[in-house]
Design brief:
The complex is a heterodimer of chains A (about 300) and B (about 450). In chain A, helix 3 crosses helix 7. Among the domains of chain A are: about 100 residues, Cytochrome Bc1 Complex, Chain D, domain 2, CATH 1.10.760.10; about 100 residues, Sandwich (Immunoglobulin-like). By secondary structure, chain A is an alpha+beta fold. In chain A, the strands form 2 sheets. In chain A, strands 1, 2, 3 and 6 form a 4-stranded antiparallel sheet that branches. In chain A, strands 5-4-7-8 form a 4-stranded antiparallel sheet, with no helix packed on it. Chain A is built from 10 helices and 8 strands. Chain B is globular, with a radius of gyration of 23 Å. Chain B starts with 6 loop residues before the first helix and ends with a helix. The chains are: A alpha+beta (about 300), B mainly alpha (about 450). The interface between A and B is medium-sized, with 27 and 28 residues.
Chain lengths: ~300, ~450
């Protein structure tokens, strides 16, 4: 019993330390500290970052510089503060991605690129901040790469070409990992494993077999660069007739109990008025009977007269 | 039945019946006082309704979570109480129970009162009642709400006919009664559609009553089943049940029988009808009350034990709130004082006397009202997808005074209807009573 109590106290203390251990080290791995954004922050990124901040961060961290953060223990930091501005982009990216204690893990909620957008928004409030050289500068002249896709019905597959910029000229981007998806009702369906572009910046995917498409057999095929942290969200979408033509009426197209009155099931459309008519008809018959009583009474008094 | 009375005896007997049953008819001082009191109270309540019309439904306690509050619970209760007309006149009447004739009209009057006002109760739950017409313009034929509107209206109509048909011979008799004011006699004569009491007229009348009594059974079952579908056709905890139809219908018989007993006690005492509504009637109705209550108890056990055995997560929250949480006092109070204790007590012959049954019925009726409240409100406190970051009063329902007054208004209106109907028509059918006493052709004697 005593041993049990002791253990639970120890357990409580350790949980407490894990959850609320304030300002103990939030260690960011060395190699993450120097990580830089793939591109230079733009006004567009900051705008997108502001929206993401309002949805995911504001409820705890409050408005920038307003000090209206949620009353938690430990108190969430004002992200415009000096303590935050001193940290490297890599450190912020790591902390948002992996979380700690009450700070949630965002790697499953936000994409790498979205996290960079939030950081670009936070950085707006840091006066002395100067963005380090973007990671992509080293690779392709600071410009993001572009993707194009060709559907090759003879080869039954897709050829995807990745191009980078070097001195304003397009050059094949070698060694870029590409993944292929097909759009479905709920989210994206991944086709095959992701593949790395060759010297020509090309990669080939076999077309998926027997995927239902729309009425004409069209599929929305999407090629995406996997390493979004390095290259940003790069994608190319193309509609190709690579699927099986399928005609499935939407759930609200047919007669159904949940549909609009016009599309009521035929048995309701028939049964309801018939039932109402039957009841009203019976009542009508009763009124006829009452008329009969009236007439027979009248006849009798006429006879008496 | 053999006619073993002499003509003189029959005349004397008929005279007593007629004068006994006609005595309460007519507008007297106590009627004025009582109606005056009801009117004043109604005006107070209507002021509350004016406030609701002016300021909107926000003056009631209903909010985002619990958007069906006291009004809808009261509506279900009204529909339930109106089913008694069908139980007595149709189910018992068609099965050949002769003893019901003195209480059939009372039950029909209760049915009309509650069914007629039930529609108004729904309107009181509308923030913009002038848009009621949209139910008909844009109503979906598949929607239980449209079916409900249809069937409630039909039920009121059929109940009115079932009140009127057996009244016809009485009306003819009353139109010849010199003790009544002239305008009333004129009205009776008009309504009695040349009733002469001939054999052929009786034949047609019996036929009409029989058809209506048969027709009212499916309509009455439909009215409360459809009301239950308003709940059961949604996938919410506590409502998502396949037995909601019969559960509501049997619950309705319990509430209606409670009201019938209260009315029987009241009219017997105030209209001095001890010779007509006898202890035998109370005894029989008491037994019926036990029967319907037992069936209702059986459905209650089904309704809570089966989901309670499985304890699906959302269902568990709901059941815990009902049985051990916020609503526990009300829940167990309703089950014990409104159902179990009445059943046990009414098993004893001593308890099936007018006064004890009157008291038990008051408990039954109050229990029935709160039972509807427990069906409607707690479920809405536990939606599958809770709304986040809303104030407490959005989640928990607290009825307001205005809501209470508007609900009170509906009861006052029912009382007014019952009062008027029981003042202008004999509360007990004269011709049926005469027939049962062996007077075969009351029309010829009077």
């Amino acid at each position: 019993m005593k041993k049990g109590t002791f253990i639970s106290i120890i357990a409580l203390i350790s949980i407490n330390t894990v959850l609320f251990g304030q300002d103990t080290l939030w260690s960011v791995p060395e190699d993450q500290l120097s990580k830089a954004a793939p591109v230079m922050f733009t006004g567009e990124m900051q705008k997108a970052g502001e929206d993401i901040y309002a949805k995911n961060c504001k409820s705890c961290h409050g408005d920038m510089g307003q000090g209206n953060m949620a009353k938690l223990n430990p108190l969430p930091k004002d992200l415009s503060s000096l303590a935050v501005s001193k940290q490297t982009d890599g450190a912020l990216h790591y902390k948002i991605t992996n979380g700690r204690g009450l700070m949630p893990v965002f790697k499953n909620t936000l994409s790498g690129a979205q996290i960079w957008e939030v950081i670009s928004y936070i950085r707006k409030y840091h006066k002395d901040y100067k963005q380090p050289e973007p990671s992509m500068v080293a690779a392709f002249g600071g410009k993001t790469i572009t993707l194009t896709m060709d559907y090759l019905p003879d080869l039954k597959g897709f050829k995807i070409i990745a191009l980078g910029k070097e001195k304003d000229a397009d050059v094949p981007a070698e060694g870029v990992e590409i993944a292929l998806f097909v759009k479905r009702y709920f989210g994206l369906l991944k086709i095959d494993d992701s593949k790395v572009t060759d010297k020509q910046g090309e990669v080939f995917f076999n077309e998926p077999a027997k995927l239902p498409g729309d009425k004409e057999g069209n599929l929305q095929v999407i090629a995406k660069v996997v390493d979004t942290e390095k290259y940003g969200d790069v994608a190319y979408t193309k509609e190709v007739a690579a699927g099986i033509p399928t005609e499935k009426p939407s759930l609200t197209e047919n007669r159904a109990i949940w549909n609009v009155g016009r599309k009521a099931p035929w048995w309701v459309t028939v049964a309801y008025p018939l039932t109402v008519l039957a009841v009203l008809g019976t009542i009508g018959y009763i009124i006829l009977l009452l008329k009969k009583i009236y007439l027979s009474g009248k006849e009798q008094s006429d006879n008496l007269n | 039945m053999e006619n073993h009375f002499t003509l003189e005896q029959q005349k004397e007997s008929l005279h007593k019946i007629t004068s006994d049953l006609i005595k309460p008819i007519g507008i007297n001082r106590s009627f004025h006082l009582w109606m005056g009191f009801l009117t004043l109270a109604l005006l107070g309540c209507l002021y509350a309704y004016y406030l609701q019309l002016r300021d909107g439904l926000g003056v009631a306690g209903i909010r985002d979570y619990v958007s069906w509050g006291m009004y809808i619970a009261n509506f279900v209760f009204f529909v339930a109480s109106s089913l008694i007309g069908m139980l007595i006149t149709a189910v018992l009447g068609l099965s050949g129970a002769k003893w019901i004739s003195p209480i059939a009209r009372i039950s029909e009057i209760i049915a009309i009162g509650f069914a007629a006002i039930a529609g108004l109760v729904i309107v009181s739950d509308m923030g913009r009642p002038e848009r009621l017409i949209n139910v008909f313009i844009y109503g979906r034929i598949q929607s239980p709400i449209l079916w409900d509107v249809t069937v409630v209206t039909t039920y009121v109509l059929i109940s009115l006919i079932l009140l009127y048909l057996p009244l016809i011979p009485d009306l003819a008799m009353l139109s010849r009664n010199q003790t009544l004011p002239k305008w009333l006699r004129k009205a009776y004569e008009l309504l009695s559609i040349n009733w002469k009491g001939t054999a052929s007229q009786y034949e047609i009348l019996h036929k009409a009553i029989k058809i209506m009594a048969i027709l009212i059974i499916p309509v009455a079952l439909a009215i409360h089943t459809v009301t239950s579908w308003l709940f059961a056709s949604t996938a919410r905890v506590g409502w998502d049940s396949t037995i909601f139809g019969p559960y509501f219908v049997t619950g309705a018989f319990v509430a209606g029988t409670g009201f019938l007993i209260i009315a029987m006690y009241f009219f017997r005492k105030n209209y001095k009808l001890h010779d007509y509504i006898t202890e035998l009637h109370f005894d029989k109705i008491g037994k019926i009350l036990v029967l319907v209550s037992l069936v209702y108890l059986y459905f209650n056990i089904n309704e809570f034990l089966v989901p309670g055995y499985k304890m699906k997560s959302h269902e568990a929250v709901h059941l815990r709130e009902l049985m051990a949480g916020n609503h526990a006092w009300l829940f167990w109070g309703v089950q014990i004082f409104g159902l179990i204790l009445p059943i046990v007590l009414l098993l004893f012959k001593k308890m099936r006397k007018p006064l004890p049954m009157f008291i038990i019925s008051i408990f039954i009726v109050i229990g029935s009202w709160f039972k509807r409240y427990l069906i409607v409100v707690p479920t809405q406190e536990h939606p599958f997808l809770p709304i986040q970051n809303v104030p407490d009063n959005f989640i928990y329902y607290q009825p307001t005074l205005i809501e209470g007054l508007i609900t009170m208004a509906s009861f006052i209106l029912v009382l007014m209807i019952v009062t008027i109907l029981s003042k202008v028509f004999p509360i007990i059918p004269i011709w049926e009573t005469a027939h049962e006493k062996g007077i075969h052709e009351p029309e010829k004697l009077s």
